[in-house]
Amino acid sequence: MSAVSNLSGSYAYTDTLKGVYYGPGSVKTALPQLLDILGAKKALIVTGKSLFHKTDVVKTVENILRERNAYGATFYEIGEHAPVAGIKAGVQKFKDVDADVIVSVGGGSPVDASKAILYFVQQERGGRYLPQIAIPTTLSAAEYTIGAGYTNEEGHKVAVHAPELAPSGIILDAELTLSTPERLWLSTGIRALDHAVENLYRPLVPPPIKHLCYAALADLFKYLPASKANPQDIEARQKLQIASWMSLWPIKVSSHTALGLSHALGHKLGATYSIPHGITSCLTLAPVVALKAETASKEDKEWLAGALFYLRKPSTGSLEGDITQLSVEIQKLVDGLGLHSTLSQYKVPQEHVQTIAERAVGKEDPLLPKVVGLLHGIYA
């Protein structure tokens, strides 16, 4: 039997996770509860400049911590794709205030930066990894993984990972997302869609998680347009946060790897060409799914084709036709959200395409010519 067959395998939850709390207004009770569970005394808040300066979200979290006498400081020198200079400054701030927990507030960059800060603190001190409580305000789902991507001095995305880096607590409070810019909110929703789709063909993902991905797909297709139509709809925003959770359900893995080709391409495009992660998924997901209609194994094709049922779309009569239709539906969703993007827009030189493809899949991969063709296809 194939090692990646869905008929055999194993599953375990991440070791670190003590709770996911969700619901509008939940941060007020969830954050104190998590501090108690973790025995944490002094928190460093890690966030981004815009969230700190332009909204009251961070102040809300600061006030909850102050009421507990658990506030250390707020560090907001985290840029998009988490540049390493910010990580190093964050390590110093963490030590300066004698913190024993990070509370990250924002999107994937603060969450990943917090993992990287805690990684470097542990490397320096030894002993156990200190915990993170993540309060996401986007749909990127970085809070469910053990890896932290950041940008090195050369401008390339690199990663650190350890099972203990997965956040210990997660708070999904839709009220805190109301000030998230629309394009960021919706594009990270497509990022969550990317997670859900690529988990359908990622090796070693057990069937129950794939069914959660189907549920995530259905809700993302329904509630992203609803949230665009009415950005103040708290219920839609909360359902989207839960869909994001389902798209990347916590799973104990021994190593951190890209979910699939769309993610691998996104990692090579994002930091190098300053393309936000949500937008990389808008660029690559639909074309990658179309390619899977040609190249995926029969088992992977069956999982992908099954998504149409959850989108309430009729089958075309063939696996390949259904996967192609799924690709069409994804692109229609992206376009309908006003997120249609091209590599030309982000000034990615066409002469870099071969290198991008090689860095994503390797020079020896038989799919390399098709990946090069896929990238050329998203210039128009």
From TrEMBL:
Residues 20-173 form the Alcohol dehydrogenase iron-type/glycerol dehydrogenase GldA domain. One of its GO terms (cellular component) is mitochondrion. InterPro entries: ADH_Fe/GldA, ADH_Fe_C, ADH_Fe_CS, Alcohol_dehydrogenase_Fe. GO terms for molecular function: alcohol dehydrogenase (NAD+) activity; metal ion binding. Keywords: Oxidoreductase. PROSITE patterns: ADH_IRON_2. Residues 187-363 form the Fe-containing alcohol dehydrogenase-like C-terminal domain. This is Alcohol dehydrogenase IV. It comes from Lentinus brumalis. The lineage of its organism: Eukaryota, Fungi, Dikarya, Basidiomycota, Agaricomycotina.
